[in-house]
Design goal:
By secondary structure, the protein is α+β, with helices and mostly antiparallel strands. It is 24% helix and 28% strand. The strands form 3 sheets. Strands 12, 13, 14, 15, 16, 17, 18, 19, 20 and 21 form a 10-stranded antiparallel sheet that branches. The relative contact order is 0.11.
Length: 581
């Protein structure tokens, strides 16, 4: 896999709030000053010990169509992926919903999620109560956000994480749990998260009418701000003053130059808590899962955390996709965090803030009690729907809480470093589109002439010109030369000759042997991968064309010697982009 794959994977491996228990800290970071006239009626929806009962009825065909909708990796990172927010692939549907006994006969519903939370059995859901009947509300709420907790099998990471941020004085959405049924099918427990919109900001800020931006693979860097998704107004222009300062101000004046646009003290708390909670998929590490609110009272930007379903994992580290190696007490992939950590004074303030928050906000006794409360609250439902195994994941969250202080203090005492530069242009440039079919037998991978060991079809489209290659051959088997330290993959290779120059194009697909059976899969980062090569027989040289994002089908597949291998592929051929197209 090319070197850029690590960057592309890092920006992909892409939510809820606090219980507002006053014993755990301030009320979700309510700003000082007199609140505006907004009256919040929604408290019962997010009461910590209440499980919201949600029953949804919709046309069976609509439900089946909606739940299998998905987002492709290519739609996120191919082309000029920084020009706008990643497009949503999710359609809106009509449904009836009953919330704690109150029925709304026609509301809007759609699937939600980026990549990591997508599920076609238990999809995350967004309910728009006023989609068809303007003015429809439930206790003042127009929307419900129901997260499936796909990336958090313990169910408690999200709400516990928000409690940590709230205890530090950071604005967070409220959350508890919901028991969801669709067309009578029990989908079990969802995390019920307060939607981040002007209802939330009017409750939490003295003036809640400012612009709200969701950051998903977004950063305050020139050329990157187009990816912010404005919620209820805003064109992104108010993000540019801070963006330009971060990009251009020298170290000596950076703090002073940022002061008119950003409350740096609050950001250091937000940043430090991302590290304490090990929210590796948040702003500072992955430039993902956060909101920015432009507060009209202060005229400054404020960061709000989002989507911490991957937080509180005891073996995860920063800068290394949540693996067991890498930095512990620092994350600085976001441009603002990167600049501040590079300056000795602000670096020390950030590290000192972690120590202070470990004393003031990270209370193991209270956190462990909350984990147990949540586990006991939802256990009857989760146990009956999916069994008992999830309790082991809850134990993992407890272990994180119990061990986090010692791990962080040791890392802080050792003097954390961050040596990674800011990443370059993250988008992929499409080189071509490859389609084809193959028929061969297992064990032919070493054949010198693949045109004698299989057949198929192979077409390559560059721009608007499609070239059909002929003849076409194929071979399959275990990779005879796996990289050192890796296991051999199941390989399927398709060869086609281009008449115009005699070159042989090779579509080379690698699939883990454990999942090499008849099925449809994805080509990219998470399932299997493939690349296209251009071989010139006249010079005996091979040129790498690109790696692929797309789909494949194995119609017949087995790793038994001589087994028939048939299938097809349909994928873009990409290379790392260097500038907008």
């Amino acid at each position: 896999m090319p070197r850029f794959a690590a960057l592309a994977l890092a920006i992909l491996v892409a939510a809820c709030g606090t219980s507002e228990d006053p014993s755990l800290g301030p009320d979700a970071g309510v700003d000082a000053g007199t609140p505006d006239a907004y009256v919040d009626l929604s408290g019962p929806v997010f009461e910590p010990n209440h499980i919201v009962d949600v029953s949804i009825t919709m046309a069976a065909n609509d439900w089946n169509a909606m739940r299998v909708e998905t987002r492709t990796i290519g739609s996120v990172i191919e082309g000029d992926c920084l020009a706008q927010p990643a497009p949503s692939p999710f359609m809106g549907y009509s449904a009836a919903i009953t919330i704690d006994g109150t029925t709304f006969p026609q509301v809007g519903i759609h699937k939600k999620g980026f990549l990591g939370s997508l599920d076609d059995i238990k999809p995350s859901l967004k309910i728009k109560l006023d989609e068809f009947v303007p003015g429809t509300e439930y206790l003042g709420l127009e929307k419900l956000t129901l997260n499936n907790s796909h990336q958090d099998p313990a169910y408690v990471r999200q709400c516990v994480s928000y409690q940590l941020f709230a205890a530090a004085g950071i604005v967070v959405p409220r959350c508890n749990f919901a028991h969801v049924r669709v067309n009578g099918t029990d989908l079990g427990i969802y995390v019920n998260v307060e939607t981040i919109d002007h209802h939330l900001t009017k409750k939490r800020y003295a003036n809640g009418t400012g612009n709200i931006y969701e950051g998903t693979l977004s950063d305050l860097r020139p050329g990157w701000t187009g990816t912010f998704d404005a919620k209820g107004g805003g064109d992104g222009s108010d993000l540019m003053p801070a963006t330009n300062v971060i990009a251009n101000s020298p170290d000596a004046t950076l703090v002073a130059d940022l002061a008119p646009y950003l409350d740096l003290d609050r950001f250091k708390t937000f940043w430090a808590m991302e590290v304490i909670a090990n929210h590796w998929d948040g702003y500072a590490n992955d430039r993902n899962n956060y909101f920015i609110y432009h507060d009209p009272t202060t005229d400054k930007l404020d960061f709000i955390p989002w989507g911490p379903d991957g937080a509180l994992q005891k073996d995860a580290t920063f800068g290394n996709l949540g693996s067991t190696s890498g930095p512990i007490a620092v994350a600085a992939n976001g441009a603002l965090a990167h600049r501040l950590f590079a300056i000795p004074a602000t670096r020390q303030e950030f590290l000192d803030r972690q120590r202070a928050l470990l004393t003031s906000a990270f209370d193991e006794t209270k956190l462990l009690a909350e984990i147990t409360r949540m586990e006991n609250l939802i256990a009857p439902i989760v146990n009956s729907v999916q069994g008992m195994a999830w309790h082991a994941d809850v134990t993992g969250v407890r272990q994180f809480v119990q061990g986090r202080r010692a791990k962080l203090v040791a890392a802080l005492d050792a003097g954390p470093t961050w040596t990674d530069p800011l990443s370059g242009y993250p988008c992929l440039a499409i080189q071509a589109h490859a389609t084809g079919t193959f028929s061969t037998t297992w064990g032919t991978i070493g054949a010198a002439n693949p045109f004698t060991t299989g057949t198929g079809t192979f077409s390559l489209t560059v721009g608007t010109v499609t070239t059909t290659l002929t003849p076409v051959g194929a071979r399959a088997g275990l990779d005879p030369t796996p990289a050192p330290g890796t296991s051999a993959q199941a390989m399927v290779q398709v060869f086609g000759q281009r008449a115009s120059d005699g070159h042989i194009l090779v579509f080379s697909m690698a699939i883990p042997p454990a999942i090499f059976f008849a099925r449809t899969g994805t080509l990219g980062f998470f399932d299997s991968n493939a690349a296209v090569y251009d071989f010139d027989p006249a010079t005996n040289t091979t040129v790498y064309v690109g790696f692929t994002l797309g789909k494949f089908t194995l119609t017949q597949a087995s790793t038994t010697s001589g087994a028939t291998i048939t299938g097809s592929f349909d994928a873009n051929v990409d290379q790392q982009g260097t500038a907008p197209p």
